[in-house]
Design brief:
It is built from 19 helices and 23 strands. With 570 residues, it is α/β, with parallel strands linked by helices. It folds into 4 domains: 361 residues, TIM Barrel (Alpha-Beta Barrel); 53 residues, Alpha-Beta Complex (Oligo-1,6-glucosidase, domain 2); 32 residues; 73 residues, Immunoglobulin-like (Sandwich). The strands form 6 sheets. An 8-stranded parallel sheet has the order 13-12-10-5-2-1-15-14. A 5-stranded antiparallel sheet has the order 16-17-18-23-20. A 3-stranded antiparallel sheet has the order 6-9-8, with no helix packed on it. α13 runs parallel beside α18. The longest helix is centred in the middle third of the chain and has 18 residues. It is globular, with a radius of gyration of 24 Å. The chain binds 1-deoxynojirimycin. It holds the Pfam family SusG_C.
């Protein structure tokens, strides 16, 4: 076992095995189906390791593969020590770690410890009687005198966050679905059990953990009702359960008993952490190494979380969200750089006008986020330009939150068409459709019946085509990764300071990275028209260009629509 020592100087400069890494997120259910039952599996991932190696990936973040009834596709764990049969066996998991190691790829598992499944043995015991020793593993409360729920908190997937149990006449709390009861972190026994489990997995040689919903583990223990924000009298649960005072003690204890004992990388899902507190949460002295922030990815979602409440956003807001954190990471270490994950629609649809989606805009998006200060994450299919899906009816969707949002839209008076349009735009299934490997049936994902229908565009948008075409998005990603890891500019890309450039321009997305004697200008036209610019820098070299040709002369640059350039400048 390796004990990491905190030498501030060294850590701020990075110099850990994962500093130069590129992380690829695999959503196992949709990645590759090796046994043709219609569901992706661990053996399927092993078969595709060489593809990921060739792309230049160092770490795979694997969404949950633990045993689960799949109410929320594995984010509802019924046995932390077992692998779900749909995905394979513990032996398969061990071979994935081993086969990954052979190729220099580490596995980062998903750690879901805010809640379990209601089918977890702990919950089954907890529910069995009021005086069961596991009763306090979860959060149980008496009904109000009129029999109603203890307070008016609304769960993230809709409806009251409390579920009544007839047998013991109490309610239990669930921040997410009612099949995902929240663990009671106030109970020391719970915490000890969790730490034991975390170390069990780390002892297998994982590269790290992506830590799910961790900022929800501490609740407002007064459990008071909040001001209602819907016509059912319910209030969004965040004010009573997200980033609550005192959470630091739990997070520090978690790190001390688990992560700090291993040479790993941790990344936490942490919505809503105020920027001033980033230092406490991430970096060498933080609770985690990296943090996923969502300011830039949830710009299109209204305060109330309803997908059908339209929310306009501007490029300026998008830039501000990313750049303000970059300033913090200059002193702190690294950001977790991402545009997509399994909870988000595809970035091309979110960020680019439909008529402009194509090679240039996809490569431009890749360029602008990849070279910020941090560790880049690529979500499966992002590297080939996969886009949103539009199923004809809500019945074709699987995602629990899409179904809730649809029903809630209808309750709020929207027509079926309008409700479906909001699901088209925002559904998490947009990211969960089968990975598009080739132009054969079901996009080459399975020879069986896929659990979710493949997108119609798979004949054009697929890995096979991307591998064959020299100017493909995939090959562009390879160039970006090569520049980050193997070029003479690697140190500036990994360790260089971020500096703003034209931050307030309404069509340009640009920034500088600086390290020792090297300076890079990342410059992109986030607009569908040509733009002419005068530069105060001398362009030494063009390191990457998404069009392949560029127009720079006499200190002037002509940028074509969605053109992106990586320039070494003086
Ligand atoms: C965040 C995960 O990313 C999401 O997919 C899941 O539904 C919730 N946490 C609950 O675990």
């Amino acid at each position: 076992m390796y004990y990491r020592r905190y030498n501030k100087e060294v850590n701020v400069l990075g110099k850990r095995w994962w500093d130069k890494s590129v992380i690829y997120q695999v959503y196992p259910k949709s990645f590759y189906d090796s046994n043709n039952d219609g569901i992706g599996d661990i053996r399927g991932i092993i078969e595709k390791l060489d593809y990921l190696k060739d792309l230049g990936i160092d770490i795979i973040w694997l969404s949950p593969v633990y045993k689960s009834p799949m109410d929320d596709n594995g984010y509802d764990i019924s046995d932390y020590y077992d692998i779900d049969k749909q995905f394979g066996s513990m032996e398969d998991m061990d071979s994935l770690i081993e086969e990954g190691n052979k190729r220099g790829i580490k596995i980062m598992m998903d750690l879901v410890i805010n809640h379990t499944s209601d089918e977890n043995a702990w919950f089954i015991e907890s529910k069995s009687s009021i005086d069961n020793p596991k009763r306090n593993f979860y959060i149980w409360k008496d009904p109000k005198p009129d029999g109603s729920a203890p307070n008016n908190w609304r769960s993230i997937f809709g409806g009251s966050a409390w579920e009544y149990d007839e047998n013991t006449k109490q309610y239990y709390l669930h921040v997410f679905s009612k099949k995902q009861p929240d663990l009671n972190w106030e109970n020391e026994q719970v915490r000890k059990e969790l730490y034991k489990m975390v170390n069990y997995w780390l002892d297998k040689g994982l590269g790290g953990f992506r830590v799910d919903a961790i900022t929800y583990i501490k609740k407002d223990n007064t459990f008071k009702s909040l001001e209602a924000d819907d016509n059912e009298g319910l209030a969004h649960i965040n004010a009573g359960s997200l980033n609550q005072e005192g959470i630091e003690n739990f997070l520090a204890e978690l790190k001390e008993n688990t992560f700090s004992k291993y040479d790993i990388v941790t990344v936490a899902e942490a919505p809503g952490i105020p920027r001033e507190q980033l230092k406490k949460y991430s970096g060498p002295e933080g609770f985690f190494d990296l943090l996923f922030e969502f300011g830039h990815s949830d710009l299109d979602v209204a305060e109330d979380g309803k997908w059908y409440t339209p929310k306009e956003w501007t490029l300026q807001e998008f830039k501000d969200a990313l750049f303000k954190s970059q300033e913090v990471y200059n002193d702190l270490g690294f950001g977790a750089l991402f545009l997509e994950n399994h909870d988000q629609p595809r970035s091309l649809n979110k960020l680019i006008k439909e008529e402009d989606i194509g090679l240039s805009s996809a490569k431009m998006l890749a360029t602008i986020y990849f070279l910020l200060k941090g560790i880049p994450f690529v979500y499966q299919g992002e590297e080939i330009g996969m886009t949103n899906v539009k199923y004809d009816s809500i019945e074709e969707y699987n995602d629990i939150s899409s179904i809730d949002q649809y029903n809630s839209a209808i309750r709020d008076g929207l027509s079926k068409e309008e409700a479906l349009t909001s699901v088209h735009n925002r559904s998490r299934d947009n990211a969960r459709i089968p990975m598009q490997w080739d132009d054969s049936k079901n996009a080459g994902f399975t020879k069986g019946k896929p659990w979710l229908k493949a997108n119609n565009n798979y004949k054009e948008v697929n890995v096979k085509n991307n591998l064959e075409a020299e100017d493909s998005i995939l090959n562009y990603y390879k160039k970006l990764i090569d520049l980050r890891k193997n070029s003479e500019y690697s140190d500036v890309i990994v360790y260089g300071k971020y500096k703003g450039f034209m931050e307030n321009d309404k069509n340009i997305f640009a920034y500088i990275r600086e390290y020792e004697d090297k300076k890079l200008l990342i410059l992109a036209n986030f607009y569908s028209q040509n733009i002419k610019l005068k530069l105060n820098y001398t362009v030494e070299k063009v390191l990457l260009s998404n069009y392949g040709s560029f127009d720079i002369s006499n200190g002037e640059i002509f940028l074509k629509p969605y053109e992106a350039l990586v320039l070494a400048v003086l």
